[in-house]
Each structure stands twice: as C-alpha cells, then as structure tokens.
Amino acid sequence: MAEPILKVEDLSVDYEVGAGTFHALQDVSFEMKPGRVAGIVGETGCGKSTLAHAIPRLLPEPPARIRRGKIWFRGIDLLALPKWKLPLVRGTAVSMIFQEPINSLNPAYRVYDQLVEAVRIRKMRETGRSPVLFTETKPHDYSQTPSPKASEVLRRPLAPTLPLGRMRRLVGFSRETFRSDVLEYLRLVRINDPETILNLYPHELSGGMRQRIMIAMALSEKPSLLIADEPTSALDITIQAQVLTLMKELMEEVRTSILFISHDLGVIAEMADDVGVMYAGHLVEFGPVDEVYSSPRHPYTKALLRSVPKQYKDDGPLPSLPGSVPNLSALPAGCTFHPRCPLAQPVCTREPGPPLERAKVAQSPEHKAACYFSEEVESLT
Amino acid sequence: MGRNPSDLVVFVGKRLLQLVAVLFGVVTITFFFTHIAIPNPCNVWSGPRATEATIQLCIHNNDLDKPPLTQYFSYLSKLVTGDWGTSPLGVPVLPTILTRFPQTLELVFTALLFMILLGIPLGVVAANNSGRWQDHIVRTFYLSGWATPTYLGGVILSIAIGPALGLPRTGAFSSFPTFPEPFHMSVLDALVNLNFSAAVDAVLHLILPASALAFINLGIATRMTRTSMLEVLPMDYVKTAKIKGLSDFLVLYKHALRNSLISTTTILGITAGGLLSTTVVIEEIFVWPGIGAYAYDAITKYNFNGTIGVVIFFAIGVVVANLVADVLYGLLDPRVEWR
User: Which keywords does UniProt give here (chain A) (predicted)?
Assistant: First the structure.
C-alpha cells in the first residue's frame, strides 16, 4: 500500500467569536491515498469548508483557532510549519478551488496576469530558482547535459558583454514560454478561444468560465493535492454539469489527488473514490464510496442517503431526520448525533463520542464509522 | 464590454468644461463677497494719514464710485483677457501668483508623497494586524495627527522637532538662489541648474513644512486604506492569491492593496484639493514663499484682485485634483466606466 499523501490526525478547530466558542471540527482523522479522489459530504455548517481551508492553512486566525491535531502532508506536519514557510506549500504542493467563482478571481487584473503568476511560481520552483519544501528527488544525470558544440564556442563573444540575457534567464523565463504554458492550460479546461480570454477581465466572463479559469490556475501549478471546496455549488445546474464533466475528464488526464468537498451526495458518488461523511464537526464515517453508499455503517449516513429524492415523487413526503443540527457552541454530551439517532442507547450519552474506527461487519478494512452500534445500522429502514 | 481610450478623452473634456462653470461661479461669489463686505477699502489702501482728496482719488481710480454690477462686468472682461489687476500697491496679480503657485505645488506634492509612501503602507500594516499592537500604534499615530490643529502641529514641528533634528526652520535659504528659476520650484530649479548643494538645501527646507502638512492629513489616507483593506482581505481572490503560493508581500501589496486603493485614491484627491487651503496656515508658519502666504497677505490687506486670483487657483487645484482622482479610479478598477 502506498504512503498516504495526506493524513489528518485529531484535527480540532474552534471559532472564537463574541457569541462563544464554536467547535467547527472535533478530532477529525482520515487518510488520503495518492491518486485517489476523496469526497467529504455533509450538511451546511458541518465543518466541510473549515476542513478544506485548514489543510493549506487558509483559515483566518483569529477568529479560527486550531486547537490540536496534525496534518501530515508528504511527511511534513503543515500545522507545525512557521507562517513564512506556508507560501512554499501552497500552489505547487496543495492547491485549492473555491466555491464562488464570481469572487475568486481578482477584479483588477486581466486573466493572463493572474494565470501567469501561477505558472511562474511553478516554473521557478521546478527549476530551483525559488526555494521549495518538497522536491521530486531525481538523481542528476550528467549524460543529459550536452557538451558545448564547437560552433557555439566560436559564437561566444570574446569580450564580456553586459550579462543582461543571462540575468533574464536566471531571474525568469521569456514571456513566450509563459504565454504558451498559460494557453496550454486554458485549452486543457476546454476554453475554445484562449487568446481572447487572456486579455479579458474577470467581470467580462461568466461564472462557469471563471471556474474553468480557477481550475486551470490550480492545475497549472501541478499540485500533488487539489482541494475542491464545493466547486460547482454556486453555478447553475447546466454549467454545474459541464464543470463536473470537465473535472471528471481532467482527473483521468492529470492524475492528482483530490479532496472534493460537496453537500451533494450525487456529485460525490460521481466524482469520488472514497467518501467521508461529516456531522456537526465530526467525521462520522469514511470509506470507499460504493461501500458507504450501499451499506452505510453510521445511522446519520443512512438517514442522509434516505433523504435523497428519488426520480419520481410517488411515495409520499421525503423521509427526513427528526430534530435539527446541534448548535456548535453547545454540543450534546457523548455522541453528538444521539439526540436524533434511532439507535441511541444510554451508553451514547454517557460515554464520550465513539472514535472513528473500523466498522464492525464491514467488507473492506478501509471502511470506518464512529458508532457503537454500527452493525445495527443495516436493520434501519 | 471594455472601454475605449476615447471615452477617457471625452470624460476629461467634459470635466474641463465644468471647470469653466466652476471658475465663473467662484469668481462671482468672491467678487461680491469682497466688494459688499468692504465697500470702501480706500481708507485702508491710502494709509492712515491720507487726506480726503487722496481717498476720493483712490475711489475714482478704482471705479469704486460705480454700481457694483458695473464694477463686476468691467472686472470680468479684464479677467478674461488676462489682466488680473494689481494689488493696492500696484504689483500685478497674475505674475505674482504664477511665480508663487509652483512653490505651493511643490509643498503639496511633497506632502502627498509622504502621505502615499507612509500613510498607505501604515494602513496596510494596521489592517493586516487588526486588533493587535501594530494596529493600535498606527491608529494612535494617525489619530494624534488628525486631532492636532494645523497651527499647533506646524508650530511644534517648526520650533521643537525641526531644530532638534537640525533642519532649517524658516524659508530663508542658506544660499539664496542666484540661478534662473524656470519652474519656480526650489528643488527642481536647483536640479535643472545642476546646483546639487542648493538642491539638498531646498529638500531640507521642504521636509518640515511638508511633514507638517502630511502629518495632519496622513490619517485620512491611513484610515481609508485600513478600512478598505479590512473589507478586501476576507475576499476570495485574496485566498486565491495565497493558494497560488505568492509571498505575503505580493498578496498584500499586489492583490489586496490594488483593490483597496480605489477608495483611498478618491479620498486623496479630495484631500489634495484641501491641502492647498491648509497651506495658508503652514506657509505662514514656515515662511514659505507660496500662494498660501500670499492669500493670507491679500485677504488681510483688502487686496481684492489678489484674493480673487488666489481663489481661482485654489478652485483649479481642487477641480484638477478630483479629476486626476477620478481618472486614476478608472485606471485602478477596470469595471468603472468613464461617464
């Protein structure tokens, strides 16, 4: 089994605001295998976005406070990194796509200027011109370096000239390399007329177009981990389908690990290999998406799946879960789900919340659930 | 979609046409204020020991015995042809103002430079550390500048801080310029004449009055920058800039500040116009040979022509400063259309 690319351990995040302390994440632990797509699904306010933002350390601190936990990314604990090293992680190692394409591009700069920044950062790091934290260690092969040809030696000037060309080569690359790179990534996200798009400002583009550009920007840095925080939720339904199809196709082409956040069970089923279900700041179930959907091991997952509308509305009102999501500043004692759980027993209130561990009677060892009675979930209707 | 450069030309043209209307109004108001408030300035102009005959002669020479409207139209017709009249002592107004106005511009531009180079980064630092000690220090600093009355701040700088730093206090230049003055701006003139010691001297003389002018108005730039940075920093595009892997400096000053500057520019435009009138006090304190000191002199000595001339230049300054701010506004924000 390959080393996990991302390993989140006991991550707990609070928001300290005037009204009190809100526990947005409580002891969230999961692993992501390289090259796989992990989905995180849950209701609004369950902590999905907080989790997504905590990984590249994008949470505004304050009001957010990371209480404890570790985020192991390729052997480095991101939470232990000093602030000034964070830009080295972002972009080429971890990149992210946000929910609102309307706001995620800078209104003051042309599309080209925003894309070229990403390309430049990647090229500078790839060629070792700017410092990096993660290097693809390849042994240097000297046979690759061509020996100077006689013609070149002859062409070299006898007297030293101002090293302007050399400086330019050291500092950056020519404009053309950048431009062709930017165009290549715009074509990758299926933009028909990239030459025109380059010179436009974000406000001259549609939402779907802007989200494509965001995807191009993220991919142009070739990140090892791409976090997509509800990338299609703010788009209307036809554009949503287009962008999802595009992302699905790109997953085949780019082969990067993706953490896909969504509130839409259908989207997750379509996109993800693994799925994590979140409830009130807790990761209550995690496992291969087929298995979690076909035989959920947590009563919340079961209830969530049951409330998905079927194709025809013929069997009465949609089943819904009694009660409502608890206030994150005053979580119930024990398992946070017990007030709404049909399986709840006294132990669920008395004991601290059950840890996320291998579900009993689950098929695959990867399937984990945080419930004392995970074997009884099947019996629920 | 998009904007044409011709939009900008039309926009500037329209605004300059408006300037004519503004100037007409300003001249009219100032003329009637001065002439109605002091209907007979000849008592002062002729001096304390003037005889009745001298005063009558003065009244006759200055058309003060004619009805105000007649006076107004004859003044206006001369003004348009470039004859701005003379001071009571016979010094022509327009050439005096033309030699003194650039000196004031020099002062105002230096103060604006201080406000931009110091005020805006301070605002960025305060917003980026909002609620922490850096923020409190910056806010105390600019509020104390803001709360200080102009004359008090000027006097403190001129008699306490200036000498303590060894800066020259008055407008008396150590080496009185003996070179031609094409611009009537001490630093530029010295540089054009390649007289570098005079240029250094001129810069040293500029520092105190310019910082007095800047310190008082710094708060506006800092506060505006801080407030709009606080609005911009939580935006998604700032997160986008961060997730690209850009350094904190680029995220703050390239991506966030660019969008915050839009409101700061507007405020700076208004302030720049206001700075002109603040120079009246500052130039008196620092004996700066600019238009502000001249305005003070003209008003206190019932120099009507001088007063109206100064007011015209102040009005031009205010309108042009706002125009520049509006043009910059459009350059900073591609979504703005010049209308």
Answer: ATP-binding, Cell inner membrane, Cell membrane, Membrane, Nucleotide-binding, Translocase, Transport
